[in-house]
């Protein structure tokens, strides 16, 4: 038998995580010097977090250390079980260096046990939707190898696009120079960001918020979208824009199921309030 793990950077709602019997690795963030662990919404004040960011609160993330991973994994190995872990992109965080060190240590102590890790090469609900379907496979009796093979194939169909409203948060995270951020704010430029090979890439820039939201929907229209699977609409405390883009999506895809999700504080530290993201499955 194996225990199914995911991490909070997948942003899958805690109720669904509980329903699927997933063990959650909570991820740390700091807001104005106070460290917390994101538990995928179980105790999260999403609006309060972004309100504080708007008022200038310092928000940052940090990686888990080797001891943290030992605390999650060793009880499973000690109980005679293996681990299957569907994770966010390993290229986006140094936390997986600590994870690998922990697993090397545990391998010496529990040589008969194993942990298979499926790197989704995505983040947020790009990872979350893969966790959802992979956990269903696992619960249906699929082997750990079959789960990893599914993720390796399915990740090529998961499309992630988002836009931020304030470039200052990308600047703070080192993804944008101060000059470009300043000029972008002055000119009302909004980036359209996607994921390629496990990393964030700036696909294009457009002028104005409404144009940016319409451009996101345009990516859905250009792809051969699989309407038999749900898409995810993410928002970082911006209900008006969420409602606006929802109507745009419904106009183009009236039969498409839409999951509405909040951007969590770990992802929110880097993208800031008023971020809008879309995740959908292509054929």
| Principal-axes shape call | globular
Main pleated sheet: 6 strands, mixed
Number of helices: 11
Which range does the strand content fall in?
Answer: 25-35%
Element string (H = helix, E = strand): EHEEEHEHEHEHHEHHEEHEHEHE
Percent of residues in helices: 40-55%
CATH topology of the largest domain: Rossmann fold
Poorly predicted segments: 173-187
Task: Please report the first level of CATH classification, the CATH class of the largest domain.
Answer: Alpha Beta
SS content category: alpha/beta
Number of domains: 2
Overall pLDDT, averaged?
Answer: 92
Question: Could you describe the 3D structure shown?
Answer:
There is one protein chain. The chain has helices at residues 14-20, 46-54, 66-78, 95-109, 125-139, 144-154, 168-172, 178-187, 209-222, 239-252, 265-271; strands at residues 2-7, 23-25, 27-31, 34-38, 59-61, 82-87, 115-119, 158-163, 189-196, 199-207, 231-235, 258-262, 276-281. It is of the alpha/beta class and 283 residues long. It has two domains: 2-154, Rossmann fold, CATH 3.40.50.10170; 158-281, Hypothetical Protein Tm841, Chain: A,domain 3. The strands form three sheets. A six-stranded mixed sheet has the order 10-9-8-13-11-12, with helices on both faces. Strand 9 and strand 10 form a beta hairpin. Helix 3 (66-78) runs parallel beside helix 4 (95-109) and helix 5 packs antiparallel against helix 6. The longest helix has 15 residues, at 95-109. The model is unreliable at 173-187 (pLDDT under 50).
């Amino acid at each position: 038998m194996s225990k199914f793990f995911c991490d909070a950077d997948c942003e899958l709602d805690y109720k669904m995580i509980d329903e699927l019997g997933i063990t959650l690795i909570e991820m740390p963030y700091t807001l104005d010097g106070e460290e917390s662990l994101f538990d995928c919404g179980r105790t999260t004040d999403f609006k309060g977090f972004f309100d504080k960011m708007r008022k200038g609160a310092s928000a940052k993330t940090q990686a888990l250390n080797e001891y943290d991973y030992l605390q999650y994994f060793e009880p499973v190995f000690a109980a005679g079980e293996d681990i299957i872990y569907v994770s966010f992109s390993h290229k986006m965080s140094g936390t997986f260096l600590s994870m690998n060190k922990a697993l090397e240590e545990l391998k010496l102590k529990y040589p008969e046990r194993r942990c298979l890790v499926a790197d989704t090469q995505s983040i947020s609900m790009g990872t979350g939707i893969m966790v959802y379907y992979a956990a269903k496979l696992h619960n249906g009796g699929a082997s750990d190898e079959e789960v990893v093979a599914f993720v390796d194939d399915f990740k090529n169909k998961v499309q992630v696009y988002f836009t931020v409203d304030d470039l200052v948060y990308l600047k703070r995270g080192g993804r944008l120079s101060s000059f470009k951020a300043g000029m972008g704010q002055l000119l009302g430029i909004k980036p359209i960001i996607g994921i390629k090979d496990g990393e964030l890439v700036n696909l294009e820039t457009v002028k104005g918020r409404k144009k940016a939201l319409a451009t996101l929907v345009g990516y859905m229209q250009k792809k051969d979208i699989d309407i038999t699977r749900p898409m995810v609409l993410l928002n970082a405390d911006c209900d008006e824009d969420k409602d606006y883009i929802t109507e745009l999506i419904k106009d183009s895809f009236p039969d498409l199921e839409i999951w509405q999700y909040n951007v969590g504080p770990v992802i929110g530290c880097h993208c800031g309030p008023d971020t809008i993201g879309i995740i959908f499955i292509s054929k």
